[in-house]
Amino acid sequence: MRRTVGHLYLAESRRVFATLVRLLGGFDLAEEALHDAFQAALEQWPGRGVPESPRAWLISTGRFKAIDAMRRRARFEPMEDIERLAESVPSADEMIDDTGIEDDRLRLIFPCGHPALSPEAKVTLTLREVCGLTTEEIARAFLLPAPTLAQRIVRAKSKIREARIPYQVPSPAELPERLNTVLKVIYLVSNEGYSASGGASLTRSDLSGEAIRLGQLLVELLPEPEAVGLVALMLLHESRRDARTSTVGDLILLEDQDRTLWNRDQITEGLALVERALSSRRFGQYTLQAAIAGVHAEGPDATATDWAQIAALYSLLAQVEPSPIVELNRAVAVAMRDGPLAGLHLIDPILARGDLADYHLAHSARADLCRRLGRVAEARTSYKRALALTLQKPERRFLEQRLADLRD
Fold first, then answer.
1. Which has the closest alpha carbon to 379: 364, 393, 358, 395?
2. Can you give the pTM of this predicted structure?
């Protein structure tokens, strides 16, 4: 029975939690009620058997446990709060349908990604409350002390409570802006999983997996084109995971990867989602990035990649979502299409503006173009600048090897 309850916890706990948050009005009380409900399952199910609807049983039990906890603290709580909560408890024969539970999960995503929260708080709270990662797991992923992460979570919850941020899906008028915020949170989680900001590993599969799962949930509940495009992008990036590092964890560039190691199932699914998002004609930056990743995925090898199409897609992306990083990526694509000198003519003005002065990949890209042009001194200077800005150990080893090669 303990194994049965354990499997149920992994599969259903975040659904149950999301509903308890709505019913109880806050994260902490819902978390306590969730744990109490599963503890009650461990104690009662061996003798009574697993109920016909475990989710509904856990939600109802969690509600009752929360009321009991409030009654134990009754001298500190207004009585009307207890009565209001008691009235919300369903009768024993009332069922909680799956649609309502899934709607609750969607309701929970939006307050965790509310514009009132800082970007760091949005990511942290989403991983903790929607995905169910522990504070320690999130802290390890972002290379932060657990107490620091815990305080971030506490402050984010306090902000939601003090600002009276509702646990609900935004109105149709508010949805586009709010959806973009939530997509940005998922995108940031995915980016950290795809290319960790620091540490011994190039990637963090736990974060990538959570981002994909969260994106798929969002598409299931709210199938907007850009949500579909984001899932496509994450799947296409994830498909290359096994080819991106050597057996000892060293970085392997896209052009040198063994494409037989790419996950064809994820590529097939990702390409289908790209087509779906593009067909809506309401696509944006994530769909365009997914389309670019799709072009890479379709090339049988690096030499067969359609760099003209990639450069054109980056030009379109620069119109939809202009940024120095998009300019940089377009410059690299142009270099692959027209030669390193053409790319260098585009990268140098970006760096001259100072927009990407502290972005190691900009200096690394410039160094590579200089290396290909035989401008060794410039390449060495740019590689050193990139190395000084890089915290990730596999990337540092790669840059150090590039510098060593230039000395030979």
1. 364
2. 0.76
